[in-house]
Design a protein that fits this description.
Helix content: over 70%
Number of domains: 2
Distance between the termini: 45 Å
Radius of gyration: 23 Å
Number of helices: 4
Strand content: under 5%
Order of helices and strands: HHHH
Length: 96
């Protein structure tokens, strides 16, 4: 038997209407719809969805490519750019 827990939640009427539309269109129960939505939400905030991994890979690849180009074509500016990036990150996280 599956280990399940019953949770009671209140949701805005607008969300309930959306669940009802999906229920009618797809023939799914509200429990299945909300379970799937919660599973996707938790995976997304964890950063573990396939889309999020592809997005992160693309960002890292672009960073590495640009960093390599700057190192080779503008070696004098590379350290200054890295220091400025570090300063901006520190300012961003100090503000939050």
């Amino acid at each position: 038997m599956v280990d399940e827990v019953r949770i009671t939640v209140r949701i805005p009427r607008e969300l309930a209407n959306g669940v009802e539309k999906v229920q009618e269109a797809r023939g799914l129960t509200p429990s299945i719809i909300l379970r799937n939505a919660l599973t996707l939400y938790l995976a997304t905030i964890d950063g573990s969805t396939e889309t999020e991994r592809r997005r992160q890979f693309s960002s890292e690849y672009l960073f590495l490519g640009i960093d390599l180009l700057i190192q080779r074509q503008f070696p004098d500016a590379h350290q200054a750019l890295m220091a400025e990036a570090d300063r901006r990150v520190e300012a961003l996280y100090a503000a939050s």
